[in-house]
Design brief:
With 486 residues, the chain is of the alpha+beta class. The chain has 16 helices and twelve strands. Helices cover 44% and strands 13% of the residues. The strands form three sheets. A five-stranded antiparallel β-sheet has the order 1-2-4-5-3, with helices on both faces.
């Protein structure tokens, strides 16, 4: 699977040219330009559309061809004639080819057993736009793009610290995708950083097309529905994570960054929580956790109470539920499954449809399906209310991956409640809790800070305390510099 490239560079430019023409044949967008620097032959290779031609014409070829007589030794060409800012020198043919296929320009010159790589990358790219999956009421209106260099700049603008570090390496045997690791050297947990590097070195796949590939390869547990790595398209979220002592991963061609380690409560937090006053943010956070509990438990509670524990329902409410179910041929469990599946189909359709008609189809489809199901006597009106509340509360979760995981848990609770009622809900809750306790993210317990004996981390859990209380960084992250505010 390893790419077979002759690693040796000849001191004759023509030999290197012939080799690369054979290696890269049948590629009409690869340009081979032969020229002379005084009496030395040179070869320039680049990909059309990925390289700045104006830079090559005005500051490389013109200078080399016109001013070539000004140098006496071929080794002086780099220092005296290459008038571009970014010049690298490699003695490996494989390194030169990798940079050429990434959009840079490589030059071979007679008498040199090295190649010069010129930083001339340029291509059409999507500009910085407002984030689509993480909207906020107050905060920066910028999101990552598909170009890794643009994304690193967006983060650097927010961290003007000499201790901020950025490591860039390529992964993917064929794609050779650029992957950047970002952290603040004196804050980061060195053990987590070491573990992340070790996992990345084990990446042995032919292509990495999105940060999701990296996420699935380096995560701790492959069999859980819960995400163990935070993904975001917001530079301010990445910067906040770095200041806490976490590590960010950027992948070229992907507008989503990864942040490690990640504990479960992090996925229930929104940037709005920190940009607004603490009192407002705390109320919103309490509403959010309440909505999550309703989303998880409401359908299974309805099934358990209406099917097994009718004695705990007030008499008038019991009569109302019984009246609404007159003529419905299915038990509550089947009703719930029908509506859950219908909702899942509708949500998937809305996601795949073009945006102008997606929202319209979602509203109209929900109304028509719900009304038609009640009119046909397939489901009861109270079930429509329960499923609607469940859908709305599920959307309160700021992270889409967690909301998908909660959907899986909700179905598990529905099945267990249909078998043994409230005992099934309790059994399901215990199973999920044991599973969450066993999970880790790069050595950090997944339920941190809930399982952390240091109660100081609780100031940013169910409520957010005023900013003056944030004197230290989260204890469970085991950071280097622990002081955030004096």
């Amino acid at each position: 699977m390893k790419e077979n490239i002759n690693d040796n560079i000849s001191d004759e430019a023509q030999i290197n040219l012939d080799y690369l023409k054979e290696l890269l044949k049948d590629n009409s967008d690869i340009i081979f330009r032969e020229f002379y620097i005084s009496n030395w032959k040179g070869v320039l290779i680049y990909i059309d559309g990925m390289t700045d031609k104006i830079l090559l014409d005005d500051y490389v070829l013109e200078t080399l061809m016109v001013m070539g007589d000004k140098v006496d030794k071929v080794t002086d060409i780099k220092e005296r004639l290459l008038t571009v800012t970014d010049v690298k020198e490699f003695s490996s043919m494989a390194d030169g080819v990798k940079y050429a296929l990434s959009g840079d320009c490589i030059i071979f010159i007679d008498g040199l057993k090295v190649c010069y790589v010129l930083g001339t990358r340029t291509w059409n790219a999507r500009g910085v736009t407002e984030p689509s999956s993480e909207t906020v009421v107050r905060g920066a209106r910028e999101s990552f793009t598909e170009t890794i260099r643009f994304n690193t700049v967006l983060v650097r603008r927010k961290i003007r610290d000499t201790r901020f570090k950025l490591e860039l390496k390529s992964y993917g045997i064929r794609s050779k995708t650029d992957v950047a690791i970002m952290y603040i050297d004196d804050i980061v947990n060195k053990e987590v950083l070491k573990e992340l590097r070790a996992r990345l070195e084990k990446v042995n796949i032919d292509a990495i097309l999105d940060s999701g590939y990296i996420e699935q390869i380096i995560e701790d547990n492959k069999w859980t529905p819960f995400p163990q790595i935070q993904s975001t398209e917001r530079p301010d979220v990445v910067a906040a994570g770095l200041y806490e002592g976490r590590i960010a991963i950027l992948v070229d061609n992907s507008p989503f960054a990864l942040i490690v380690p990640a504990a479960l409560p992090v996925f229930f937090q929104s940037p709005d929580d920190y940009y607004q006053r603490w009192f407002t943010s705390s109320i919103v956070r309490i509403i959010r956790f309440t909505a999550i509990l309703l989303s998880l438990l409401l359908p299974s509670l309805y099934i358990a109470i209406s099917s097994f524990h009718t004695e705990i329902i007030p008499i008038k409410l019991a009569y109302s539920i019984a009246a609404s179910r007159v003529g419905v041929p299915f038990p509550a469990f089947v009703e719930t499954l029908i509506m859950e599946l219908s909702l899942a189909f509708l949500l998937e359709a809305v996601v795949r449809l073009p945006r102008p008609i997606g929202s319209t189809i979602g509203i109209v489809g929900g109304l028509i399906i719900g009304q038609a199901a009640v009119s046909a006597g397939i489901v009861s009106p109270i079930m429509i209310i329960i499923v609607s509340i469940t859908a709305i509360t599920n959307f309160v979760v700021p992270n889409y991956e967690v909301s998908s995981a909660l959907r899986v848990i909700r179905i598990l609770l529905i099945i267990l409640s249909s078998i043994i009622g409230l005992y099934g809900i309790m059994l399901g809750g215990i199973i999920v809790l044991i599973h969450l306790i066993k999970l880790e993210s790069f050595g950090i317990p997944y339920l941190s800070p809930l399982v952390n004996p240091d109660i100081s981390d609780f100031k940013d859990l169910f409520i957010r305390m005023p900013m003056c209380f944030f004197k230290k960084r989260p204890v469970y992250l085991k950071t280097g510099d622990k002081i955030r505010q004096k």
